[in-house]
Amino acid sequence: MTFEKFVFYLFAAILVFAATMVITRRNPVHSALFLVLAFFSSAGIWLLAEAEFLAIVLILVYVGAVMVLFLFVVMMLDIDLATLRAGFIRYMPVGALVALVMAVEIFMVVGPANFGLDKVPAPVAQPAGYNNTEELGSVLYTVYMYPFEVAAVILLVGIIAAIGLTMRRRPETKYQNPSLQVRVKKADRLRVIKMDAED
Amino acid sequence: MDSLITFWEWLGTNLIVLQILIKIVVIVAPLMLCVAYFTYAERKLIGYMQVRIGPNRVGPKGWLQPIADAVKLMFKEIVIPTKANKVLFLIAPLLTLGPALAAWAVFPFSDGLVLADLNAGLLYILALTSIGVYGVIIAGWASNSKYAFLGAMRSAAQIVAYEIAMGFALVGVLVAAGSLNLGEIVRAQQSDAGIFGWFWLPLFPLFLIYFISGVAETNRAPFDVAEGESEIVAGFHVEYSGMPFAVFFLGEYANMILISALTALLFLGGWLSPLPASWVDGVFLLGDGIHWLFLKTAFAGFFFLWFRATFPRYRYDQIMRLGWKVFIPITIVWILVVGVMVVYRFAWFS
């Protein structure tokens, strides 16, 4: 076994283990943290495939930002496990059926028929000094310019939609206007009164 | 000496893991010493700023104070709250310290003096600094304490907000240098204008925003709402004692040194001499060298301490306003300005 193979199987084993833990742990915070571990191991596998830009961006975006917000929300939930598991037996057949259909679909798409060992040639190691970031950037901004921009616009629409859904006048909340606060002068707040000393 | 060099080369070809381990020790051991004496410098400097003397009992002028502190923390009892999540409670401090140390792997101390010369070095640093927040969040949650949890919530929102501004500031640097490699970024600042050729001048707004965001990222005053002694006792690490607390402490100071060193590297020319190269080339200590990097790092680090002695703590909503409504728009505008300057080969980029 070469070193690369060893590293691949190590990361792959951790990835599968972490992914299993994500769906089996009762505690949602533990699940979220195992998902972080899963991201880390997939980033490791991508590094092995010489896609260092994607690997680091996976950690930067998913671990550094998305999962932080996930944890943020999950930590504040007080999940009642009893009610959560109450309907387990009732919904089991439907759930199992959906899972089976999904598994078959996934197998048909990414199974050996399309992605078998004979279909994909073994990757050739890039020469030293190969810059994955530069490569991706030049392709992204020339060949895939329009899809890239369309994706950006879709994301922008998503942001605006999310803000539009949550922005509403809430007269009952107390709001401070910081610029007004900053502009306050001493004369607005403070009045010095001349008064005689009491005797 | 010659036999040592041969041995070193032999290690490089046969036992590369051992060679890398030695390099890691050579970086981390002085770093830990710097962290220890950074705490001493902080207490002394803030003492002088507040017309006190600061620690002066342990050893001459208090020089042994950090050692005494470390020994004290090592022998203290580790208290784990009964209802705490024990594993996560103990992992959290490591998650703060780990990334702060791992980031040094791609840090070029001088021309070619770097452990791992990564092409995507800047991205690597950004990714690792973004992981630091997990330590705080997990500590807050695993402690099972209201104060700790409040600190974690505050910190999570704050760090995510300032990370965006920080990332955009780094995008400016990347556009200006045309590379993600930290060594290349420093070499791009080399010119015959000396100090005026560094990126702090053309990227001045980004320089300020990067440093201020760095202060916010490390949860330092005036952005230390995650600790907020006067509001939530000590925030996320209120339940920690002994060595786990010490690890948090080390992580915070290691992060401060990292941010200072990165500011020196990205905006203040790293190991480059502030004097024009044609004047001082080859002159002892005035030419380029690692000592300039240390001086610049110390200069940036001093600001962390100065801020703490000077500014009162920000109010939480104003932190958010500053991050989202002031810093992010400014960085976006300045990235555009930098782009225009680079395209039209303006002064610094010709």
UniProtKB/TrEMBL annotation, chain A:
Superkingdom field: Bacteria
GO cellular component, one term: plasma membrane
Keywords: Cell membrane, Membrane, NAD, Quinone, Transmembrane, Transmembrane helix
Entry keyword Transmembrane helix: yes
GO molecular function ontology, one term from the record: quinone binding
Enzymatic reactions: a quinone + NADH + 5 H(+)(in) = a quinol + NAD(+) + 4 H(+)(out)
Transmembrane parts of this sequence: 6-24, 31-49, 55-77, 89-110, 144-165
Subcellular location, principal: membrane
NCBIfam families per record: PRK06638.1-4
Family in the record: Belongs to the complex I subunit 6 family.
Subunit and interaction comment: Composed of 13 different subunits. Subunits NuoA, H, J, K, L, M, N constitute the membrane sector of the complex.
Protein name: NADH-quinone oxidoreductase subunit J
From TrEMBL, chain B:
Membrane-protein topology: Multi-pass membrane protein
Compartments, record wording: Cell membrane; Membrane
Entry's EC annotation: 7.1.1.-
This protein's GO CC annotations: plasma membrane
InterPro entries for the chain: NADH_UbQ_OxRdtase_su1/FPO, NADH_UbQ_OxRdtase_su1_CS
Domain of life where this protein originates: Bacteria
Assembly, per entry: NDH-1 is composed of 14 different subunits. Subunits NuoA, H, J, K, L, M, N constitute the membrane sector of the complex.
Protein name: NADH-quinone oxidoreductase subunit H
Organism of this sequence: Sedimenticola selenatireducens
